[in-house]
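Example (one chain per record):
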Amino acid sequence: MNQDNQAGVPVLEVQDIRVGYSGLPVLQGVSLSVQKGETVSVVGSNGAGKSTLLRAIMGSQPVSGGRILFMGREIQRLRTEKIVHLGIVYVPEEKMLFRPLSVEENLLLGAYILKDQQRIEENLQSVYTLFPTLSKRRQQPASTLSGGEQQMVAIGRGLMSNPRILMLDEPSLGLAPILVDEVLDTVRKLKEKGMTILLIEQNVREALDLADRGYVLQTGRVVVEGTGKELLADQRFRSAFLGI
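Predicted structure:
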C-alpha cells in the first residue's frame, strides 16, 4: 500500500503553520513530521486544534502562515482534490458515508482516482479481508450499519485509493468500548502492514501505545513531543492527560 520516497524525506511535514477562524488564532505555529511507515498520534483536549490541523493539511482550511510539505513538496496552496490525488487520505470523524448506498458502493467511491479495474478489485478484497463483517454486509445500505461498522466503511473507503498516508480523525468517537478496541486494533493492523498513519484519537493512552511518536497539542501549540513510550512515562503528561 506504500510507495517509495526519497531517503530521509518525511512523507508529511508541517512547519510552523498558523490557522485562524474569524480573526481568532486556532493553530499558533504547529510543527510535526511523519516518516514513511510511522504511526504518529496527535493528542490533546477538545478545542486544542487537532481536527483543524488535519483540515489544514487537506487544504479545506486556509493556512495563514507556515508550510505543509508532502514528500518534500509544498502543498498548502493546492486544492483538496489535488492533495487527494497525491496520496493523502483523510477520514473525518463525521464518517460522511452515503447512507442510502450499499457498503460496497460506498467503498468503491473511495477508488474514484484509480483507473485500473483490477487494482480496484484487489483493493476491495483487501478491505474485506481487513473487515470480514463488511464482506457479509456488502449489499446492505450504510444506514443499516452499527456505528462501529460505519467507521469500518469510512476507513475502508479511505484505503481503496492506495493512500501514501492515512489521516484518521477520532476514529473511535462515540463508539461503545468493545467497538473502540476493535477500531484501534484495525489501526494497529494497518501499522503492522507498513501503512503511514497520522492519528487523532481521544483515547490518549491507546493512541500513544500504538504510536511510534506523539505530539501533545494545547491551545493551538505543540507543548510536548516524543515517542509514545516517552510520553506515557512522563509524569507531567500522565497527570495532565491521564489523571494519574
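Caption: Strands lie at 12-21, 24-34, 39-43, 65-70, 73-74, 88-91, 165-169, 197-200, 213-218, 221-227.
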